[in-house]
């Protein structure tokens, strides 16, 4: 691995750093960064010390020995993280050098020092060189007294090589944890690796790549920086930001094309301003084209001068501090991430310059405001320089251009500034990457708090914890938001905790991915669809996941997973990659975290007080109005006519509702037909409708039935049904020629999007009369908030007895994260229930009632009630019995207990060859007797069994998990229970203990349901036990060797050797 230039300026040859004249007067932000580095940040940031001190009883013994980094130490290792809770350093302003030693003298008595000195691991000879930036894991660490330092044992990633590193000065109090990822660069002094104020660095959690802009936002107020990073899309001056984007692009294109005359630049400006992308942005921001042109024209002569001066070779103005020439623009808006430095950024322009007789690549940062050469702006350039140096090598500096004043300066990374920024990054990461819940830095004491765009968020955190600790004269002490009730703040904080719990999992890394040829790269609009070949498949990487594409340790592109197979992952990303180039795909759940946190932030806004009362306080909606007779026209009656009485009532009551209504739709009760009729009815009344739901499939299913209704579908083309593509926003925008066309597009009466992909920015000027949320029993409350922000009233369609929201973390489920928006608001006063179902025959209807619905369901017609399997099977007795078309045999349980009674069962697996063989044999008999593949479905609770069944069946019969079968039905359903164990203990969180998933599984069949499983194992799961108790004796078919033409040996002869269980 090449040595990054970062190592050269972190370890100066002479150990000193000369401060340039232009930095003599530090800005407030620079001083703030230095204070963070030196520990001079006030009570909040002066970390507290614990574990060795008790306020009442004095010093206490360290905790008992524990296994640290795979070893059992003789003595406990004192963690500085534990040393930071109860005692504030007496003299935090004397943080470096001799005075730091004096402070630590007061923290230890002689017995404690004697214990610390007993450790010997810190004196071991290092096998690992830390002279270059090295990715490591923390093995153990301790605080030492003389000299005052923190001693850390690190092990290089992927090896057993270890090194002892001594952290001194401001690095000494960095908080570490065992097995934490770190990047280390140190200097050797007398055989010891040392990081101090003059040499080296230690970056914690470099896998958490922090955006440089977020870190810069935290230079003045770290708390504000953390909030702006977590709660994206909450702030920003949209027109100003938009104008900056236009001017950025104009300069970038002028540089790429060497435009050096006003006429050419003006033509380019018109092309950019009139592009469809900007037409949409101008409409949403309320910016007039004439105002845009007026602003752009001010910059045209400045751009021309810049190109003539720095591209064409004219002598530049020496006052600018750059005496070179730009000879090539190599990239624009280049996204670069480093899993070694732990930062990421988007470089405005990467250019090649000619200076002092040589060419070199540098980043160029463009600013449109007044020239300040502030530390915030300079540090951005320094960080981009480091990132490009990792990517390109030998990048020594960057350019900072203020176009408005035509000032440019070359910025070189300065040791002290970059060191302080990296310490700021370490502090920042502690607050945003907690495994369970993040903490915020304490608020600064500034009058600017009163005008901060994050004031409501900041207050909501403080109200829950810390407001009473602020000094009496703190600006936030008397801050008040009367519309924010205590229940609202508690709801906000509870959901924040749950989201951090759920999204705290490690990133998923897929190594050695590559695109096998140009034919696997397709341009889609401005993006590129890449089909990656992968050697390993991660089941947690699913369509919709956000990923970063890495070359070595550098991220070069961001994208979204479109589809996944056993050997490929298709990603839609913003940059074309080279075929055959070996990449690393990293998936993170943080995208969803930011998305949901933004929803919560908007939810706190004053204008959503009533919505908070409805959802948080569960206030009953205001009284409904009555349906006016004048709207019951011939057209509307024609829409209602095909519906049954319950469905008609649901439509009319939704129309009459004032704030919200729930429509409970058990399986087969015609939810989709009711929704379609409702949308057509409201569309005739000129109501504006937003259709949302949990999945693309459910939304597209509705849209394809809206014949005669114009709609606009938001979302990625790759995730949308191809038949809906002509009505997608992307395709319709291509036809727009001016802002008026875009306006007409946004004034369409029906719009549709999934809840998660609904663009807050795209709809900020749109208001809907009603929002329809399908599958709302699968939608998390915080997910549903987003579409509800845009509507006057809403209707939720779902069934809380079916699949809940997907929540992976047990602790988050315990807190209530899997309680859907439907389940939270479901009450008799607010809910209409559909009970007439048109799917299951009367036997299957009775089973659903006995298992879950308590007699609610009834068959919608005699033809539905009396339907049976239309095939008479002629085969072995046991096969004929199972596949009998008799009404009473519409549901059967095939018991395989005898086979497993004779086995020595190992740990239960998630595959079962016996059940797969039985399903395959029975399914084959159905096909041979004329039953269509399209009429058969196979369900299993585990992905592994699904894959085994797919390999066994090798046909077009649909095989999937319960979750994937939600919303579908088949005439015949096979359910493979899979699990086999004689252990009476079962986890209450096990998938087979999920009553709702079992309800979905057994209500997919129309005329025949065949369950295959080890009944003795199944009775350990209460939902399965209840289902079995609902069956008659003749509906339970116990397979026994030698009875009814059945033998286990005959069955297993049909089995493939690839399965995991054998006799």
Automatic annotation (TrEMBL):
Belongs to the DNA2/NAM7 helicase family. This is DNA replication ATP-dependent helicase/nuclease. It comes from Menopon gallinae. The lineage of its organism: Eukaryota, Metazoa, Ecdysozoa, Arthropoda, Hexapoda. Keywords: 4Fe-4S, ATP-binding, Chromosome, DNA damage, DNA repair, DNA replication, DNA-binding, Helicase, Hydrolase, Iron, Iron-sulfur, Metal-binding, Multifunctional enzyme, Nuclease, Nucleotide-binding, Nucleus. It comes from the Eukaryota. Residues 643-731, 742-809 form the DNA2/NAM7 helicase helicase domain. Residues 35-59 have a biased composition (Basic and acidic residues). It is found in: Nucleus; Chromosome. Key enzyme involved in DNA replication and DNA repair. Involved in Okazaki fragments processing by cleaving long flaps that escape FEN1: flaps that are longer than 27 nucleotides are coated by replication protein A complex (RPA), leading to recruit DNA2 which cleaves the flap until it is too short to bind RPA and becomes a substrate for FEN1. Also involved in 5'-end resection of DNA during double-strand break (DSB) repair by mediating the cleavage of 5'-ssDNA. Pfam families: AAA_11, AAA_12, Dna2. Residues 1-73 are annotated as: Disordered. Its main location: nucleus. CDD domains: DNA2_N-like, SF1_C_Upf1. Residues 817-1015 form the DNA2/NAM7 helicase-like C-terminal domain.
């Amino acid at each position: 691995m090449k040595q990054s230039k970062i190592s050269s300026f972190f370890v100066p040859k002479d150990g000193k750093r000369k401060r340039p004249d232009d930095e003599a007067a530090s800005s407030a932000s620079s001083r703030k960064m230095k204070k963070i580095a030196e520990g001079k940040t006030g009570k909040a940031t002066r970390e507290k010390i614990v574990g060795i001190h008790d306020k009442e009883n004095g010093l206490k013994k360290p905790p008992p020995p524990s296994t640290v980094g795979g070893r059992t130490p003789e003595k406990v290792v004192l963690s500085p993280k534990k040393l930071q809770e109860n005692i504030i350093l007496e003299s935090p302003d004397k943080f470096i050098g001799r005075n730091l030693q004096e402070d630590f003298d007061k923290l230890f008595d002689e017995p404690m020092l004697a214990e610390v000195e007993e450790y010997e691991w810190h004196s071991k000879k290092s096998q690992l060189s830390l002279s270059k930036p090295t990715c490591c894991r923390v093995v153990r660490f301790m605080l030492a007294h003389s000299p005052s330092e923190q001693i850390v044992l690190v092990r290089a990633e992927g090896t057993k090589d270890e090194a002892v590193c001594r952290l001194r000065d401001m690095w000494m109090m960095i908080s570490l944890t065992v097995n934490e990822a770190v990047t280390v660069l140190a200097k050797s002094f007398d055989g010891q690796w040392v990081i101090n104020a003059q040499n080296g660095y230690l970056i914690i959690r470099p896998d958490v790549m922090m955006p440089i802009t977020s870190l810069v936002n935290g230079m003045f107020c770290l708390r504000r920086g953390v909030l702006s990073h977590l709660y994206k899309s909450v702030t920003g001056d949209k027109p100003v930001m938009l104008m900056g984007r236009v001017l950025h692009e104009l300069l970038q294109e002028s540089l790429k094309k060497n435009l050096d005359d006003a006429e050419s630049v003006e033509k380019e400006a018109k092309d950019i301003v009139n592009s469809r992308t900007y037409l949409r942005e101008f409409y949403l921001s309320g910016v007039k084209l004439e105002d845009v042109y007026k602003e752009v024209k001010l910059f045209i002569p400045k751009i021309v001068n810049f190109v003539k001066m720095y591209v064409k070779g004219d002598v530049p103005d020496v006052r600018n501090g750059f005496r070179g020439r730009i000879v090539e623009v190599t990239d624009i808006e280049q996204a670069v991430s480093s899993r070694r430095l732990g930062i990421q950024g988007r470089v405005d322009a990467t250019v090649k310059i000619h200076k002092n007789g040589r060419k070199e690549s540098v980043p160029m940062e463009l600013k449109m405001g007044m020239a300040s050469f502030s530390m915030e702006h300079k540090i951005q350039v320094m960080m981009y320089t480091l990132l490009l140096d990792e990517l390109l090598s030998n990048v020594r500096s960057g350019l900072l251009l203020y176009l408005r004043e035509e000032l440019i300066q070359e910025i070189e990374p300065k040791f002290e500034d970059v060191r302080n920024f990296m310490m700021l990054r370490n502090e920042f990461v502690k607050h945003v990457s907690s495994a369970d819940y993040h903490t915020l830095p304490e608020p600064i004491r500034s009058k600017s708090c009163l005008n901060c765009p994050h004031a409501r968020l900041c207050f909501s955190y403080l109200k829950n914890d810390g407001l009473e600790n602020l000094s009496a004269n703190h600006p936030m002490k008397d801050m008040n938001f009367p519309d924010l009730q205590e229940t609202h703040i508690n709801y906000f904080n509870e959901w924040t905790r749950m989201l951090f719990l759920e999204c705290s999992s490690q990133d998923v890394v897929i190594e050695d991915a590559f695109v096998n040829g140009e034919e696997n790269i397709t341009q889609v609009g401005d993006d590129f669809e890449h089909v990656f070949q992968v050697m390993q498949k991660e089941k947690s990487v699913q369509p919709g996941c956000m990923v970063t594409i890495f070359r070595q340790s550098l991220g070069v592109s961001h994208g979204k997973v479109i589809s996944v197979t056993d050997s490929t992952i298709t990603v839609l990303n913003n940059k074309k990659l080279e075929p055959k180039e070996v990449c690393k795909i990293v998936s993170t759940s943080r995208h969803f975290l930011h998305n949901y946190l933004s929803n919560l932030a908007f939810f706190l806004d004053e204008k959503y007080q009533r919505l908070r009362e409805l959802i948080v306080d569960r206030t009953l909606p205001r009284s409904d109005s009555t349906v006016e007779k004048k709207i019951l026209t011939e057209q509307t009656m024609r829409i209602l006519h095909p519906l049954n009485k319950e469905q008609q009532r649901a439509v009319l009551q939704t129309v009459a509702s004032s704030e919200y209504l729930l429509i409970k739709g058990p399986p087969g009760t015609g939810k989709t037909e009711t929704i379609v009729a409702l949308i057509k009815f409201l569309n005739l009344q000129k109501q504006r409708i937003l259709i949302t739901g949990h999945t693309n499939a459910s939304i597209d299913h509705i849209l394809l039935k809206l014949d005669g209704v114009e709609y606009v579908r938001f979302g990625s083309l790759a995730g949308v049904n191809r038949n809906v593509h002509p009505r997608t926003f992307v395709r319709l925008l291509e036809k727009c020629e001016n802002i008026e066309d875009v306006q007409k597009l946004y004034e369409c009466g029906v719009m549709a999007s999934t809840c998660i992909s609904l663009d807050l920015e795209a709809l900020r000027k749109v208001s809907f009369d009603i929002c329809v949320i399908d599958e709302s029993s699968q939608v998390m409350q915080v997910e549903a908030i987003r579409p509800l922000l845009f509507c006057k009233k809403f209707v939720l369609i779902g069934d809380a007895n079916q699949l809940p929201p997907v929540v992976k973390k047990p602790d988050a489920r315990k807190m209530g994260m899997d309680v859907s928006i439907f389940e939270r608001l479901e009450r008799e006063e607010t809910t209409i229930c559909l009970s007439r179902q048109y799917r299951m025959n009367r036997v299957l209807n009775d089973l659903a009632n006995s298992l879950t619905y308590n007699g609610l369901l009834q068959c919608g017609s005699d033809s539905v009630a009396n339907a049976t399997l239309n095939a008479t099977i002629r085969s072995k007795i046991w096969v004929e019995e199972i596949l009998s078309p008799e009404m009473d045999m519409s549901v059967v349980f095939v018991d395989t207990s005898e086979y497993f009674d004779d086995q020595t069962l190992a740990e239960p697996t998630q595959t079962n060859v016996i059940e797969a063989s039985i399903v395959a044999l029975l399914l084959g008999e159905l096909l041979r007797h004329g039953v269509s593949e399209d009429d058969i479905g196979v369900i299993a609770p585990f992905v592994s069994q699904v894959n085994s069944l797919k390999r066994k069946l090798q046909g077009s019969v649909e095989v999937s998990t319960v979750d994937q079968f939600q919303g579908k039905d088949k005439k015949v359903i096979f359910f493979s229970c899979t699990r086999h164990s004689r252990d009476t203990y079962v986890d209450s969180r096990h998938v087979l203990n999920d009553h709702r998933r079992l309800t979905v599984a057994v209500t997919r069949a129309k005329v025949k349901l065949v369950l295959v499983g080890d009944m003795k194992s199944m009775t350990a799961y209460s939902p399965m036990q209840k289902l079995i108790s609902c069956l008659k004796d003749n509906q339970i078919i116990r397979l026994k060797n030698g009875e009814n033409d059945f033998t286990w040996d005959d069955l297993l002869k049909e089995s493939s050797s690839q399965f995991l269980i054998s006799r």
